[in-house]
Amino acid sequence: MKKALIIVDVQNDFCEGGALAVPGANEVIPYINLLMEENDYEQIVLTQDWHPANHKSFASNNNRKVGESIILNGIPQFMWPDHCVEGTFGAEFHKDLNRDKVTHIIQKGKNTEIDAYSGFQDNNHFMKTGLDDFLKYHEIQLVEIVGLAMDYCVKFTCTDAVANGYITCLHFNGTRAVNVKPENGRDAIYEMIQKGVTVLG
């Protein structure tokens, strides 16, 4: 069975000192590096938040405060601080993440009007990123997923992987939650398990 590792958004803005730092984010990087070292993956894919500066998910572009919600193109949109703006240091992958074996990079969140948590598609399900096509082209059947953040981009990447027909495993030790609310990470685990994601570790 051919397997791939999907590493979600291990970027400076989500790590320690970043604009949208996930608590404990830096702790997952050695674990992810070890996975790549000790396992044979047919493909190793990085996803990368890559937002235009005027992205509508940024509170600053809506005269709103971080943490508020608006309706954006018909669906609720959480207001985030400016983060992972294309071409900036914050959007770059963390320097400690070993990229020697990476075979493909998927950039997401590039459409000003629509956010994209999942590595597979935008939040409105209007546009696919090409990740599913890439994996199917390489006859991948099983995906293992790690990265940031568990209760947003990792969760939606996992559930979309299941929906696209992949055997899907989340490495619990390779992810951390934002936990805007304290229970968000826990709830994300429950939701993923209910939708068919296997949680490892």
From TrEMBL:
Listed InterPro entries: Isochorismatase-like_dom (IPR000868), Isochorismatase-like_sf (IPR036380), Isochorismatase_Nicotinamidase (IPR052347)
Gene3D superfamilies membership: Isochorismatase-like
Enzyme Commission code(s) on record: 3.5.1.19
Example of a GO MF term: nicotinamidase activity
Domain Isochorismatase-like: 4-199
Keywords from the UniProt entry: Hydrolase, Metal-binding, Pyridine nucleotide biosynthesis
Keyword Membrane among UniProt keywords: no
Annotated metabolic or biological route of this protein: Cofactor biosynthesis; nicotinate biosynthesis; nicotinate from nicotinamide: step 1/1
Family: Belongs to the isochorismatase family.
UniProt name for this protein: nicotinamidase
